[in-house]
C-alpha cells in the first residue's frame, strides 16, 4: 500500500505544474466535475443528499489546439480521457492515435475529445510539444466548410487557455484523482453496557472506517459522532452506515454495493468517508469484528504560515485553527466536515483568507472559485444566497491581491460579467438589491430575529464592494467600457448608502429599509463591513465602534463566521487588545469545552449538549467548521500585521501589534517566499524574502533600525522601508 | 437472438406510453444525451468526427416529485439511473430504497437522482402511484432551511413536467436504448483482380458488417461505398474500418477496442454502423473470412401514409422517397446516412413535414426538436447556421398544427424565448439580421455564386416568419406580453420587406441589400418563401411565378433541399401539372442514374462519377439524404391535397389535384386516424376517420356528392363539408 501512496503523492504536490507536460482541460470544467463528486458525498443518516442548487457539468466535447513551429520532426505521445481524434493542419489522422510524427516547420495540431461522464482531458508528451497551459481550448470550434470543402474564415470561435493542475504523468488521469490516506488507530475503545463498542479516535477526524478480521454473518451498524453523545444516539446521530456481512463479502446497504473482503485479513474499508471523533459500532450476534481502525483522508498541505507567542492558550487556538483549516481544505474548501461537506461561497472566502496565512495553496482557491461560479446561465445566487454571490466577487480580487495571478482573473472575467448581469437584472428602482422570490438572504445564523425584508444595508454594502471589484477586474483584463460601467454603478450605489441607511440618532447604519422607511433595528453587519471597506469617514467609523461594535445592547454575534468580520473591523480600528481578549474568551471558550477543532456556532451562554444542537436537531451543529478558524487570519494580518499592498506581495505592509502579548513570532507566506516577524515590547525583527514595503511601528520615541532609515508618519507612528531579504532589527518603545 | 429483438420491440413501439408507468426524465435531457450518442458516431476514414457546434448535456442532478392522495396504503417499486434518494413529506428514507410503503392520505413524494454519464431517470410502479408525465421535475429545488430547520417558503423553484418516451418496463433503462437489427445478406459478391472481394447489398442500406467463420491472423480492411467506385477506392472512400484478427479475438484499430470472437462460429460484428450499398474487403494472406453479411439497423416505423397512381415512375419515386425517409429516420431525423449522420435543423424541418405524410411519428419529431435546441446559454445559431435557427422556430408550429400537441409547445416555450433573444441580440439598426462573425449564412449549396453579405431577403423572410411563430406560440402558452412583443416585431419587419427588397423592374425580391443598396441579383429563395408564406399580394405572387420561378435565367436550384420549397411554391400557385413534370424529370432522373435512395444534390447536367463528388471530394456527396425525399410531402399535401387547418386535424382541408395523372389513391395519416383519397378524372372519394373540413373541387360543372351539399366557391371551384367518417363519393368534370 505504501507504494501506491508514493505514486499519488506526485499527483498531489500542491504547486502548479513545473513539468514540461501535464493533463489539460477546459478551464473550470474539471473543477466543476470534481466539485460534483464532493458535493454529492453528503449523506444524512444513510441517505444520499445532493445540493439544492443547480449542479453544472463539463462541456462534453472539447477541442484542444496548439500552433507548432518545430525545428526538426518530432514524435509525440497522446493520451486522452474520452473518445478523441487528432488533426494535423486540418487533416484527420486515422483512429485515436497514441503517437504521431510531427514534421518540422509551422503546423496546427488539434485534438478533439468527447466524454459525457468525466471531463475531456488530454496529455501530450514530446520533445518540445507538450500539453500545458499554452494550449487553446474551445467547446465550439465552428469549423464549417463550404461546398468546395473550404473551411470558414469567420467562425468567431471563442478560445480559452487550457486549465491544468498537477497531473503531470501519463497515467495520472484527472478523473482518477483521490486525496491521500493514512491509517489511524482509535485511542480508546469501550464496550457499552447496552451492547456495541464506542471507539474514540482522540480528536475530530475525517476518513474511512476499516473493519479487520471480519467473520460470521449478519448486520453491522456504524454510528458516527463528533461527540460521544452523538455516536451513541442511534436515533439522532447525523451520519451512520449499515452493512451486511456474508461469507467472503460485505454489502453497504445504503448504496447497495457489495464488495469482496480482502483475502488475507478479511478486511473491509467503507466506500464513503465520514467526519467523526467517536464511532459506535453494533452488530448482530453472528458477526465478529477483530479490529476497528480508520483511513485518515487528507489533502497534503505544507504549513507555510505559523504563529507562536508567550500565551499557550493562544498558541493552542492557532494550532486547533490550523487543524480545522486542514480538515476542511480538501478537494475544495468546504464548510464543515460532518454534515453537508458542501462548498459554500460565504464560508469559502474566509477559508481563502485564512489559507493565505497558512498554506498559501492557490490551486485550492482557484478550484473552489471555479466550482462556486459554475456555468451559464446563472439561475440563482451562489448557493442560492444573495450575500454569497457578493462574497464570490470579492474573493476573486482578494486572490489576485495575495497571489498576483492576473491570468486567473482573465480566464474568469467572462463568468464574472454574466454573474453580475444576473445581479443587475434583480435590482429595484433604487438600484438596490432586495430578496426576491428564490433569493436566500442569509446574513448569519443569529440568536434573535433578523429581518430579511426590503433593502438590507448589509447586502447593499456587499453589492457596492462587488461592483468596485468588477471595475478593478475590468481594468485588469483591459475592458475599458466595463470598467467605466461598473465604476459608475458602484459610485451611484455608494452615494445612496448614507442617505438611505445612516441614522444620526443611532450613529449607525440601520439594518434595513422597507418601502423607503428606515427600520428601527441596528445590527452589526453593515456597520462592521463599512469599517474595513472604509465606506465611512473616520468620525463615523469611530462612532460605529462605540454605538455598535462595542455596544452590548446590539444583537450579539454567535457564529465564528460573523465574528471573523466583527473582529476584523475592530482590528482595523486599532482595537487589537480588545480583540485579543475576545479571541481568548471565545475560541478559548470552545477549547475549554473540549473542542479539538472549531465549531460552526458557539454561544458561551449555553452549556453541555446545548452546544451540539442546531437546525432543530440535537447534533445538527458541525464541530469542525472552516469559519471557526479565523484566528489564523486575524493573527497573521492584524498581529503579525502582514498584508499585500500590491498584487502578489510586490509590495507589502507590515504593521505588527502585540495586542497585550509579551512576545510573538511567526511567518506569513508570500507567493515565492515568506515574511518572518518577531516582536516583543522592545524589539521587532522582520525578514522578508520577497517583495518590498513599509514596516510601520507605533513607538513613543524614534525607533532604531539595523538597516535603513526610520521616517516619522505621525506623532507616535514611524515607518521603515524594507527592500531586501536581510533581517531588519528595530528597537522601539511601547 | 430472436427473443432479444422481441423484447426490444416493446421499448420501440412508437406511440407515447399508454402503460400506467414509464421511465421519466427532465424534458429534453434524454433527447440531448441520445443526440450526443448519435452526433458522435460520425467517422471520416476511421477518425472520430464530432460536431463543431456546442454539444450540450443533461442536468446531472434532477429532482422528481409527485403529490399523492391515496385512498389506502400502497407499496411502490423504485428504479433509477443514477445515485438517488427518496423523501416522503420531506423525510429522507434510508439509502436508495427499492421499495417504499406509502401511507394513505395526502403526501409529497420526492426522488432526487445524480448521474454524470447518462441522464438521471426514474421508474416508479405501484398500484396507483406510477412514474409518468404527471410528475414534476426540476434541476434546482432551492430547498434551503433556516436555523430552526424550517424549509424556505419562497424558493421560486421552476418545475417542468417530466419527459418520457416508451420505456415502460422496469428493465428498459433509457440509457440502454438501441435501434432494431435484422440480418441481411449481400445479393452479389465479386472477387477483384487486384485482390479482395466486393459485396453488393442490392440497395442503399445502413448497419453493421458481420464477419463469420473468421480464422487466421492478420489485418482486415473494410471500405464502404454508396457506389462501387467509392467502395473500391481505398484512398478516397469516405468511410472504412481496419481490424486486426488474432486467435480468438479481433481488434477494431480505430477505436482500439478488442472483442472476443463469438465462440460457435468465430463471428464478429462491428461496433459502429455504416451506410453503404457496396463493401470492399481486403485482408492479409493469413486471414480467412467465411462469410460477410450485415445487421440492418433501423427504427421500426409503421407506414401510415401511402400513395399509388397510374404512373409507375411516380410510384417508384414515392417508394424510394419513403425508403430514403426510413433510412434517415433513426434515433433522430438525420441529414444523410453516410457522411455526417448529424441532426441539422434545415434538413430536419423537411423530414418532419414528410413524416406527417408517411409515419406521423411525433416522438421522433419531438426528440429532434429538443436536441436541435439544446440548452441555454445560446452561443450560436442552430448548427451555427442562421437560416437553421429560423427553420427551428417554424418547425415547432408545424408540429403543433399537424399533431395538436399543445403540451409540447408549453414545455419548449422557455427555450424558444431564449433562442429568439439570441437572434434579437444580433439584429442591425434596421431590425434585420445580417451574417455576423460566427454566423454561417447557408441558404443552399448552389451551383453558382451566392452573396452572403448584408441583409439577405431570404433570411429576413424566415426571420419574420419566426417572429410570427413566436407570437402564435406565445398565445398558445398564455404569454400575452410576449404575444404583443413578437407581433409588433413581426409586423415591423414585414412592413420593411417590400420597401427594402422589392424591385419593380425585376418584379421580384432581390437577393440582398448591402449598406442600404439593393444588389442586382435575383435568386429564387426569398421569392418562393414569400409565396407560400403569403407575404405578397396575389398580383405580386403571379409576377414572381413568371419573373423567377418559371424563369430559366435565374440561378437554378440543384439540391432537392431547395427544390422542396421551389416546388411547394409552384404547387401553392396551382402549378401541379408543371411540378409533376419536374418531379418526374428530377427524381425520375436520379432513378435512371440507378438511385435506390435519393441524393443530397442532383444536377441533371452532370454525368457518371460527377454525380458522386461534392465538397471537393470524389465521393463527398451523400446518396441517401432525407431532403431528397420531398415528393412524399408534395404528393400528400398538394396532390392528395390534405393538410390541417386547425391543430391536430381538428379541421382539415382537402384539395386534391391530379396534376396530369389519370388516377391516384392514397392515405394521409392524422393523429388518431387517417384520410383516404381516391381521384380520377371523374370521381373523387374521400374517407376521413378523424376531423372535419372542406373538400375543395375544381370542376367545370357542379359536382355531385353521395352525402352532403356541394357549395360553390367561385366560377370553377366548389366545396363539400365533411364531418363524419363515411366515405364521400363526388363526381365532377375536369
TrEMBL record, chains A, B:
Limits of the Alpha-L-rhamnosidase C-terminal domain: 641-677
Domain (Alpha-rhamnosidase-like N-terminal): residue spans on this chain: 62-281
InterPro entries from the UniProt entry: 6-hairpin_glycosidase_sf (IPR008928), 6hp_glycosidase-like_sf (IPR012341), Bac_rhamnosid6H (IPR035396), Bac_rhamnosid_C (IPR035398), Rhamnosid-like_N_bacteroidetes (IPR048932)
Signal peptide segment: 1-20
Keyword tags: Signal
Domain Alpha-L-rhamnosidase six-hairpin glycosidase: 305-637
Xref: SUPFAM superfamilies: Six-hairpin glycosidases
Keyword Flavoprotein among UniProt keywords: no
Gene3D superfamilies: 1.50.10.10, Galactose-binding domain-like (2.60.120.260), Maltose phosphorylase, domain 3 (2.60.420.10)
Biological processes annotated in GO: carbohydrate metabolic process
Protein name in UniProt: Alpha-rhamnosidase
Provenance organism: Bacteroides faecium
